[in-house]
Design a protein that fits this description.
Order of helices and strands of chain A: HHHH
Subcellular location (chain A): Cell membrane
Strand content of chain B: under 5%
Protein name (chain A): Cobalt transport protein
Largest interface: A-B, 81 and 90 residues
Strand order of the largest sheet of chain B: 1-2
Largest sheet of chain A: none
Radius of gyration of chain B: 19 Å
Number of strands of chain B: 2
Shape of chain A: elongated
InterPro entries (chain A): PDGLE_dom
Keywords (chain A): Cell membrane, Membrane, Transmembrane, Transmembrane helix
Distance between the termini of chain B: 44 Å
Shape of chain B: globular
Structural class of chain B: mainly alpha
Structural class of chain A: mainly alpha
Helix content of chain B: 55-70%
Oligomer: heterodimer
Radius of gyration of chain A: 21 Å
Strand content of chain A: under 5%
Number of helices of chain B: 7
Helix content of chain A: 55-70%
């Protein structure tokens, strides 16, 4: 397999993967169950849910004025969560890609494999 | 389906009830005491530091886009709470998925990114307990999940789809159970709730949530196995020449 072909197949994989993630985050997020989840349910059943900090540190961050949990503030409810999903998915994609780019060495030379 | 009717469908009726905070296994601030917070931060930071070193030493550029895609997919999937009989819900944690595709080292970095974005941008999971959340949901999935998956897969047959699927299913389910039990222990040590009660309650729900984790993990991995088996950290032999692997060590 030529290098160019490998590269374009990898690009296609990345685009398809990000596309699937965006479809899930934008179009499926409104269908998510609203029931309390595992720990949430346990904290209600065992009556310790009131221990959760009222004024959590995250609410001091500037993002709190933009997002209320997974909902963009100030837009109709039907699109608040899909937009949060879109932003969050792109943010995690970019951050993970960026960290990978920083940490993984650039074009690895063949000698890299032989060092090990 | 055209976008406009879909948006109307989404915003009608059942969507009007208030959107509740989803926590899943995401611990909020206030549930854990200072010593537990400190220990889990130290463990999380140590494992992240080791992972950074290993990724630097062992991984090749091919892994970078896969890290982005993996993080994006796990973030998106974590938004989708699936119903659990009895009025509870659960969602994918994704550590075993990340571990199978990227190995435990880059997988750890991906999971860490997901929990940071959730806590900092979306107030999901506390900031003071972020170390515990990264440790419980991310690192247990990537390390325990990966090594359990690898042991089972290689025992059944490295190149067999069935080996991969069985290994991933068992590891995904087990990683959720282990994470839930460790979370219960942290709650008990913090004096939030008695140990036996906490473990019983957490285990009961997460037995079922783990089945959802296993199902999503297996579906995603089988799809990738069929389309791009070379994307696996331990690719099936013949699917790929050694040069194309994302990581050299395993």
């Amino acid at each position: 397999m030529s290098n160019n072909l490998t590269r374009s197949r990898n690009r296609a994989f990345a685009i398809a993967g990000l596309g699937i993630a965006l479809i899930v985050a934008v179009f499926l997020s409104p269908f998510a169950s609203q029931d309390p989840d595992g720990l949430d349910r346990v904290s209600q059943d065992l009556k310790f849910e009131d221990k959760a900090a009222e004024d959590a540190p995250a609410s001091k961050l500037p993002f709190y004025s933009i997002f209320d949990e997974y909902a963009l503030r100030g837009v109709p409810e039907g699109i608040a969560t899909p937009i949060a999903g879109l932003v969050g998915t792109l943010a995690t994609f970019g951050l993970a890609w960026g960290i990978g780019k920083l940490v993984v060495r650039g074009e690895s030379s063949p000698s890299d494999e032989s060092d090990r | 389906m055209p976008i406009v009717p879909l948006m109307q469908a989404l915003s009608s009726g059942w969507l009007y009830h208030p959107i509740q905070p989803y926590l899943a296994l995401h611990i909020p601030d206030g549930f854990l005491n200072l010593p537990v917070i400190a220990v889990t931060w130290i463990l999380a930071i140590a494992l992240i530091a080791i992972s950074l070193n290993r990724v630097q030493a062992d991984y090749q550029e091919k892994a970078v886009p896969l890290m982005g895609v993996c993080a994006a997919f796990i973030f998106a999937a974590q938004m989708i709470n699936f119903p659990i009989p009895g009025g509870t819900s659960g969602h994918l944690l994704g550590g075993t998925l990340a571990g199978a595709l990227l190995g435990p080292w880059a997988g750890t970095l991906v999971m860490t990114v997901v929990f940071i974005v959730q806590a900092v941008v979306f107030q999901d999971g506390g900031l003071t307990v972020l170390g515990a959340n990264i440790f419980n949901m991310g690192l247990i999935g990537t390390f325990a999940g990966y090594y359990l998956y690898k042991a089972i897969r290689f025992a059944i047959g490295r190149n067999k789809l069935s080996g991969m699927a069985v290994g991933a299913a068992v590891a995904a389910w087990a990683s959720v159970m282990i994470a839930a039990i460790i979370c219960a222990i942290q709650l008990a040590v913090s004096g939030t709730v008695p140990l036996a009660v906490a473990i019983g309650a957490m285990a009961t729900w997460h037995v079922l949530i783990g089945i959802g984790e296993a199902a999503i993990t297996v579906v995603a991995l089988v799809f990738i196995w069929r389309t791009r088996p070379d994307m696996f950290y331990d690719p099936p032999r013949r699917a790929v020449s050694p040069r194309n692997r994302i990581g050299v060590g395993s």
